[in-house]
Design goal:
EC number: 4.1.1.37
Pathway: Porphyrin-containing compound metabolism; protoporphyrin-IX biosynthesis; coproporphyrinogen-III from 5-aminolevulinate: step 4/4
Bound molecules: coproporphyrinogen III
Organism: Cellulomonas marina
Number of domains: 1
Number of helices: 14
CATH class: Alpha Beta
Oligomer: single chain
GO biological process, one term: protoporphyrinogen IX biosynthetic process
Number of strands: 9
Strand order of the largest sheet: 1-4-5-6-7-8-9
GO molecular function: uroporphyrinogen decarboxylase activity
């Protein structure tokens, strides 16, 4: 999840003085920031240090990540001319992607047998930032455009699918063992809008890595009603946030789809016995799935005590081997 390293003093020291997106595009620094939480917590996989808006920056969109705010786009995209301007930026070439490929390759080499997860943003979540110009609660402008001008919307989502899919493919080709698509804001959509106006673009994005043979994970927040549709765009594993108990998610998915989730980040601040009981509950509810990737239901809050995260990882490993 995003911000996994942000609670670490070594992360803050390594990042000091470097803007977020510049850190992502410095291969040695991105690799070191990926390795920090793996070293510290002993997790079973790393997630590449990057961001969903990195491919937008690489293709030439004026975007930055403002601390405490999130991605901010200088010129929001609202009209057919705006989408044409995006297309004029040209494709995301291997040359533009070189810092990402290099960062992944360095990280895979350093991780040895520990797998690395690559990721990208889903077209809807990227479009939400592009249309709104920054973070937003309801994504009103994006959802308006979807209905007011469906042709422009479809063109924008198709562009976003190819840019983000190319970014994902570059990571897998450089050595990641899995690929995750984050549709963080899809929860603001009805199932009907998701299926008609968003799912085809997400399928197109995942289509960019289909022939590479890696497993894909598809995650969103507030997406309890969209889980089946999110699997059906072509994902192998469905991520679940803290809002839905995992056994209910497994049931909705028909019992045949591996799930990822869904420790509530809020409980990282509860007394240990409360957190421990919650983690055990999550593991028990996930046991009915054909596979369970244990993680948080959303990002690690920056003020999290890193020692609590290490303790959670130990507990999960102990339960897995039947020692607790
Ligand atoms: O934690 C990690 O290092 C994993 C890599 C990762 C980041 N972003 C790094 C990051 C991942 C997987 C992401 C994905 C991401 N980025 C998503 C999808 C997943 C999710 O959490 O919903 C989204 C929506 C974004 C966009 C974004 N980037 C937001 C909303 C923010 C938070 C802004 C803030 O300060 O509150 C970011 C910044 C960001 N991305 C940070 C990191 C480590 C924090 C940078 C910092 O301030 O040090």
């Amino acid at each position: 999840m995003r911000q996994a390293g942000r609670s670490l003093p070594e992360y803050r020291a390594a990042r000091a003085g470097t803007a977020m997106l510049d850190s992502c595009l410095d291969p040695a620094l991105a690799s070191e920031l990926t390795l920090q939480p793996v070293r510290r917590h002993g997790v079973d996989a790393g997630i590449f240090f990057s961001d969903i808006v990195v491919p937008l920056r690489l293709v030439g969109v004026d975007v930055e990540i403002k601390p405490g705010v999130g991605p901010v786009i200088a010129d929001p995209v609202r009209t057919a001319d705006d989408v044409a301007r995006l297309r004029d930026l040209g494709p995301l070439t291997a040359e533009r992607l070189a810092p990402v490929a290099e960062g992944v390759a360095l990280t895979v080499a350093a991780l040895g047998t520990t797998p690395l997860i690559g990721f990208a943003g889903a077209p809807f979540t990227l479009a939400a930032y592009l249309v709104e110009g920054g973070p937003s609660r309801d994504h009103l402008a994006a959802r308006t455009l979807m209905h007011a001008d469906p042709a422009v919307w479809d063109d924008l989502l198709t562009w976003a699918a190819d840019v983000t899919g190319t970014f994902l493919r570059a990571q897998v080709e450089a050595g990641t063992s899995a690929a995750q698509l984050f549709d963080s804001w899809a929860g603001s959509l009805s199932l009907a809008d998701y299926e008609a106006r968003v799912a085809p673009a997400s399928a197109r994005a995942l289509g960019h890595v289909r022939d590479l043979g890696v497993r894909t994970v598809h995650f969103g927040t507030g997406t309890s009603e969209l889980l089946v549709a999110m699997r059906d765009v072509g994902a192998d594993v469905v991520g679940v946030d803290h809002r839905l108990p995992l056994d209910e998610a497994v049931r909705r998915l028909g019992g045949t789809t591996p799930v990822q989730g869904n420790i509530d980040p809020a409980l990282l601040f509860a007394p240990w016995p409360v957190l421990e009981a919650h983690v055990r509950d999550v593991l028990a509810r996930g046991a009915g799935a054909p596979g369970h990737v244990v993680n948080l239901g959303h990002g690690v809050p920056p003020e999290t005590d890193p020692d609590v995260l290490t303790r959670v990882v130990r507990l999960v490993h102990d339960v897995e081997v039947g020692e607790a």
